[in-house]
Amino acid sequence: MDFTADVYLTAAQEHVTAARELYDSRRYTLAHYVAGLAVECIFRAYRYRIDPVFDERHDLHLLAKSARFYDIFPERHVEKISAALGVVVTQWLNNHRYRSEAALRSFLADRKLYVGIKGDFVKENSRRIVNAALDLVSLGVIRWKN
Q1: 7, 71 Cβ separation under 8 angstroms
Q2: What is the DSSP letter of 3?
Q3: What is the mean pLDDT of residues 89-103?
Q4: How many CB atoms lie within 10 A of CB 88?
Q5: What are the E-state strand segments in the chain?
Q6: Which of 25, 108, 114, 117 has the fewest CB atoms lying closer than 10 Å?
Q7: What global pTM score does this model have?
Q8: Residue 51's closest CA among 59, 61, 63?
Q9: pLDDT higher than threshold 90 for residue 87
Q10: Closest to 126 (Cα-Cα) out of 139, 99, 2
Q11: 5-144: which CATH architecture?
Q12: Where residue 73 falls among pLDDT bands split at 50, 70, 90?
């Protein structure tokens, strides 16, 4: 099956749902990875609509920019989108799919993403990225239909 904008859109929706389910099941590392993947899919859906040939790979900032993701929203949503994308970009790399929980903990610690968090910072960062992905995908799906 070839990838299309609609395939990417559907994958974004399925992946963000899976990320939430993984988080609820305390599978934080996979939830973390799948949340970022959902965001990549929504950006790829929009990018594909512009031109099906692109090579931003897994760089979410470049993908959002080339997809003109910010341009499709009214000004009142831009701050929320920027904040959510900031969370995802700070916490996500495509190679998280290979990480164990200990390796993700180390990655987050190296980025000092434990600061201000009481308790399990892997769990909290996973919650944050899943919620940010849910915001981005949900907003993207709403605008897709308009």
Answers
A1: no
A2: -
A3: 95
A4: 23
A5: none
A6: 25
A7: 0.94
A8: 63
A9: yes
A10: 99
A11: Up-down Bundle (1.20)
A12: confident
Q: What is the DSSP letter of 58?
A: T
User: For residues 99 and 103, what is the distance between their CA atoms, to the nearest angstrom?
Assistant: 5
Q: Which element (helix H / strand E) includes 37?
A: helix 28-50
- Find the helix or strand (DSSP H, E) in which 117 lies: none
> Do residues 9 and 141 lie in contact, with contact meaning Cβ atoms separated by under 8 Å?
yes
Structure tokens at 129: 């990225």
The per-residue b/e assignment along 34-56, b for 16 or more CB within 10 angstroms, e otherwise, is bbbbbbbbbbbbbbbbeeeeeeb
**Nearest to residue 130, comparing CAs of 4, 17, 54, 44?**
17
Amino acid identity, position 81: I
Of 100 and 73, which is predicted with more confidence? Answer: 100
Query: At which residue do the structure tokens 């899976």 appear?
Result: 18
**Torsion-angle region of 59 (φ positive above 0: left; ψ -120 to 50: alpha; else: beta):** beta
The pLDDT of 28-34, averaged and rounded, is 97
Biggest CA pair distance of the chain: 45
| Closest among 40, 87, 92, 43 to 69, alpha carbons compared | 43
